Amino acid sequence: MGSARVIGIRRRAAGAAVWYLRAVAFLNFLSAVWVSLGQDVRRHNTQDCFTPYLLTAGFASGVFTLFLAITMRRRKRAAWILNLALSGAFLLLFAFAMAFPEVRRHPQNWISLVLTAAFVASLLVGRREFYAKGDRSNPRLAALVGTGGLLVCSLLAALLVTATNHARDAHLSTFTDRWRYGTLRLVSVADDSRFPGITTPHWADVAVNVLSTLLVLAVLYAAFRSRRVVDPLSAGDEERLRALLDRHGDRDSLGYFALRREKSVVWSPTGKAAVVHRVVGGVSLASGDPVGDPEAWPGAIGPWLAEARAHGWIPAVMGAGEEAGTVYARHGLDALEIGDEAVVETADFTLDGRAMRTVRQAYNRVRRAGYRVRVRRHEDIPADEMAYLLARADDWRDGATERGFSMALGRLGDPGDGRCVMLECRDGGEGEG
């Protein structure tokens, strides 16, 4: 009971930190577009006054704070470390400043100190709730994007300031001054009275600030992007999956698509079941039912969900059957019925009867036109014929990849897929499909 209470406190503390960042992001955006509010915020963040952690007028600061809120909501460990370092430094600075009487006399400063301290405390209390790992290359990539992007954006801002400067004493400003002004506008919408000879229209200042927003987005994406490349199927994994499909593959018509080689596999402890998935846009997407013995499915689903949780991925499943959907739902996923599939028992299928009249007429029309269908296993098709069929398939397909169904192997003619079926439709001459 005590452990559950501690976990609840940690989760509420983590949630409070996220909601603080969301509220500050909203105020930053609002003060960036509401001029009078923005002026009030800036006035309360100068000289002897300071605002709470990250509260400052500007699109860039708004985007930065919002992105931190999103990454904290996804429990990114890197976002927690960054917030703790920044807010801790701000808190120490605020505490030091409060030693001066001229700072202590402003009630606003006490409020800012308390809010910042509360945010730091929520981070410390909820620290174990931020567990998601990122890619190890993220810090280096973010540094490169930030350095190069700041140089390019500051030069673009300087050129825009030069082109729109309508000050009467514009000749007093140098390009270096305009570069400094543009760089300042990249990070804030602060007062420009310190730059004589520079007067730009409001839209130009906003444009520079929006440019900085794009830069911040690029840097934050590079810094906090989820790990996307996980271990693809090895030859051993594929062999084990094929063995499971031989024994249990008849349960799921989509099971064979688990053999796409860019996917990753999570095995149950017994090796009797596996969840095959692919990471797309921060989502760990599994397709179809788990492969293998249904009794072992929970043993594979649990580790898959744990892996998604550890990396901050959102788990999702597409195309699971009713039984698998029930098992996934028991593990906390929500099930949504989006359709079904028709299974034809070829031994009993017939075109006779009133119910099949429309299908029978369509069949007869195609047959009278001279079309014939041939069905063969890939392993029964000679190599030269297979090469011809692959060429025709490439000509027929619209686009670089297979489409028309939610799943595809994407490797037509692969030697490992000899039991797959090739259907050809011929008009008496060349194959037409």
From TrEMBL:
It is found in: Cell membrane. Pfam families: LPG_synthase_C, tRNA-synt_2_TM. Its main location: membrane. GO terms for biological process: phospholipid homeostasis. This is DUF2156 domain-containing protein. The chain crosses the membrane at residues 20-38, 50-71, 78-98, 110-130, 142-163, 206-224. It comes from the Bacteria. Keywords: Cell membrane, Membrane, Transmembrane, Transmembrane helix. It is a multi-pass membrane protein. One of its GO terms (cellular component) is plasma membrane. Residues 14-221 form the Lysyl-tRNA synthetase N-terminal transmembrane region domain.
